[in-house]
Design brief:
disordered C terminus, 9 strands
C-alpha cells in the first residue's frame, strides 16, 4: 500500500496539470474545478459534527470516464474553533497528511456518457480513496448533469474513520460516529467549451 501512494499522487498531479494546458489533447471533453464543495456530517448520541470545505480540486475526463479529486484537509471549517484544531492536530494529523484524494473510473462509463446529454444520470465510480495516509478501494455514488455548459456533480459516500487509521481517543469516542457521511458538490467548467458537446 505504501508503494501505491506515490503512483496515486503522480496520477492526480498529471490529471490536474494536464487540464491546465488549454488546447492540448487533454482539452477534449475535460471538465475541472478548483473550488468544489465538500462537507461531512457525523451524528452521534452525544453531538452532531459538521464541517465544510470549498477548495476541492477535481477533474473529469468525459471521453474516458476518469475522475480525480483532491481535498486540502486544513481547509475544513467547523462551527467551533477548538473542534477544528482537534480535527487537524489530533485526528487527521493534517500537517503530515495534508490532502485526501480519490482517483477512479465511472462504472459503465460508455453507457452513462452516451445518455448524459439527455439529462441527469445516476452514476457509480470505483477507485482508490486516500485519507490520512491510507489508501483503500472505494465506491462513490452520485449524479452527473450537463447544465449551461458546466458538468454538475453530486456525490455521496460514507467513511469509517477506523478504516483509515484515524484514532479517536476513548474519552471522546462516543462523540464521533463510526461512519461519517460525506457529500460533494462540484460545478466543473469545460476546459475548452468549443470542443465539448452541449446537451
Amino acid at each position: 500500500m505504501t508503494d501505491y501512494l506515490p503512483r496515486l499522487g503522480c496520477l492526480l498531479v498529471a490529471l490536474l496539470l494536464g487540464l491546465g494546458s488549454p488546447g492540448s489533447a487533454w482539452g477534449q471533453g475535460k471538465y475541472m474545478t478548483r473550488a468544489g464543495h465538500i462537507s461531512f456530517f457525523s451524528a452521534s448520541i452525544m453531538e452532531d459534527i459538521e464541517a465544510r470545505n470549498d477548495k476541492v480540486a477535481a477533474v473529469f475526463d468525459l471521453s474516458s470516464g476518469q475522475i480525480a479529486f483532491s481535498v486540502p484537509i486544513h481547509d475544513f471549517q467547523f462551527k467551533r474553533t477548538l473542534m477544528q484544531e482537534h480535527f487537524n492536530e489530533n485526528y487527521m494529523e493534517s500537517d503530515k497528511y495534508p490532502k485526501a484524494t480519490f482517483t477512479g473510473q465511472l462504472v459503465n462509463a460508455a453507457q452513462v456518457l452516451k445518455q448524459l446529454p439527455g439529462g441527469g444520470q445516476n452514476v457509480e465510480a470505483e477507485g482508490s480513496l486516500t485519507l490520512h495516509g491510507v489508501t483503500r478501494k472505494a465506491i462513490v455514488t452520485g449524479t452527473l448533469q450537463l447544465r449551461d455548459g458546466q458538468l454538475v456533480v453530486f456525490a455521496y459516500f460514507n467513511i469509517a474513520p477506523a478504516d483509515f487509521a484515524i484514532d479517536i481517543p476513548m474519552l471522546v469516542r462516543e462523540h464521533i460516529a463510526k461512519s461519517v457521511s460525506v457529500r460533494i458538490n462540484l460545478a466543473c467548467e469545460a476546459l475548452n467549451p468549443a470542443l465539448v458537446s452541449q446537451p
